[in-house]
Amino acid sequence: MSTALVTDLTIFVLALLVGFEVIGKVPATLHTPLMSATNSIHGIVLAGALLIGVTAHTVVGYILAFIAAVFASANVVGGYVVTERMLKMFRRKAQPQAAGPRVTAQVEAGPQAELDGKTRS
Amino acid sequence: MSGFTGSIQLVYVLAAACFVIGLHLMNSPASARRGNQVSMAGMVIAGVATLILLIHDGTVTAAGWIVLLSGSLIGSAIGLYAARTVQMTAMPQLVSAFNSVGGGAAALVAIYEYIETEANAGGVLGSTTVFTLLDVIIGAVTFSGSIIAAGKLQGIITGQPVIFKGGRLLNVALAVVAVGAAAYMLTTASLPALLVVVLASLAFGVMMVLPIGGADMPVVISLLNAFTGTAVAMAGFVIANWALIVAGALVGASGSILTKLMADAMNRSLANIIVGGFGTGDSAIAAAVAADAQVRSIAADDAAIQMAYASKVIIVPGYGLAAAQAQHGVAELAKTLEDRGIEVSYAIHPVAGRMPGHMNVLLAEANVPYPQLREMDEINPEFGRADVALVIGANDVTNPAARRPGNDISGMPILDVDQAKSIIVVKRSMGTGYAGMENELYFDAKTSMYFADAKKAMSELTAAVKTLVG
Q: Which of A43, B17, B299, B429 is the least crowded, having the fewest Cβ atoms under 10 Å away?
């Protein structure tokens, strides 16, 4: 087994453990945006799709690269946009109408410690 | 690794760090949006680094650039359109669709690499062949499985479990064929074998999701999410890219955690869910509902009086709320009650809806402040103090029968709705829930049934509460 492969495996295992640690703390309230956010993160496969282009010189290569690029870019762009759309809706206080920038500031300033205590179980 | 590729790899590490920090910030609704933006910044960094790598490499042909750029533009346009126009009730379908294309892209990367290696190296296998094959299998299963899941959620394919004779046997056969052909490819490079692996995996994905019913979708989506992550990580091994490995591992971890949480919330094992068919099996013994049990029906005015003179109301939403698009109606009713000084909160069961956290997003859309959205463990002790529990479109998760052994839902964690002083259930009919069982809650002496469509019921109740002066 090559050193490079061992390095890759090490990174994989450590990232997996970091993932368990970090995601275990996400409250149930945010599970849908979480899934959508991780969805956009796996859109990084776009980098893989683009790198096909380096060696693709045949019709089959071009077709595979094209489909992969369409899939991955739909994944990454759509994922981030819809996550942002969802998270914008989570407000600490009900707002009568369209939330302006002032409201966002208010949300940011919310007492996070108290909230954490409430939402984590 | 040359100096240049090395620095690009370091930029990918920076992107991966952004993903971790972004996910970390999602531990609270107050910082979650910033988290998504940090993660997005990481993605932009990774994208730019990849473009620089492509330009620096200089081997991309003109046709290659056209293919890559047009593909990315078309994909981005589709993704943008879908993300902007999707209704919040349809989020599970969209997430499923993104799982599908993500897994598909990962599989395509591996398929391309395999074809390329085979053509160039004349059948000599690299050290990463095992990852290539895993990527192809997992990616293809995710691709077709997620399409079926999205189809079921959208109602294009029936939400009922599709079960036919020999289905399970066929599943096993497909898995054996896929893994067998892949094992053969570990020793002998073969394009026909690759085709067999791809087709068998695609078929397996379809056959895996078809027998799974609508209410088990939260588990299935989470599982497919974990699959996609794993496929992307495998793609990272194939092209030796750390950003893909880290991102894939993070998504894999997230999907696994959610899968476990959802399965636990139904008190069912993953195997049991995948094998499929809840309430379609042998244990059709109904719950112990006495033959002479009475169901009390109530009209809007009476229900409104109960709520208007309560001091604490807990609303229990379920999939029926989403199906009827009643989230805005319920929020308006809650606001009317709050204006009268009544304390209103929402009790959210982990598997309410069609994906993890589905109800929270719908209610957030209807402008319900998130501190009112309460998790099961946190709200359960409060039912005893609630004057009215208003159940809208939730069924099995409120059935007290789950506390007794010997039935289909035994041991499933439920919301303690029956502890409330009085209970109003909004429901279209006496039809049973997903488990196919009578809900004992409906026969409770404290329970009144309000038979109506959820959306219509909410506007009637709001109007009725408003007319009560005082």
A: B429
**Nearest-angstrom CA–CA distance, B388 and B398:** 14
Cβ B370 vs Cβ B418: under 8 Å: no
Count up the domains in chain A and report the number. Answer: 1
Q: Which domains are seen in chain B, by residue range?
A: 3-275 (no CATH), 300-467 (3.40.50.1220)
Size of interface A-B (CB pairs under 8 A): 412
Tokens of B451: 């038979």
Q: Between B35 and B277, where is the model more confident? A: B35
Residues of A in contact with B252 (CB under 8 A): 16, 19
Interface of B with A in 261-300 (CB under 8 A): 261
Domain that residue A51 falls in: 29-90
Q: Are A70 and B71 in contact (CB under 8 A)?
A: yes
Dihedral sign (CA B222, B224, B225, B227):
positive
Q: Is A64 inside any structural domain?
A: yes
ipTM of the complex in this document: 0.88
**Would you state the pLDDT for residue B128?**
80
CB B417, CB B313: distance < 8 Å: no
CA–CA separation, B16 and B23 (whole Å): 11
B75-94 pLDDT, tens digit per residue, is 999 999 999 999 988 999 99
Residue B3 pLDDT: 80
Q: Do A68 and B71 touch (CB under 8 A)?
A: yes
Mean pLDDT for the stretch of residues A87-112: 57
Residue A106 lies in a domain: no
Residue A94 CB-density burial (10 A; 0-12 exposed, 13-18 middle, 19+ buried) = middle
Q: What is the pTM of this model?
A: 0.88
CA-CA distance, B244 to A46, in Å (whole number)? 9
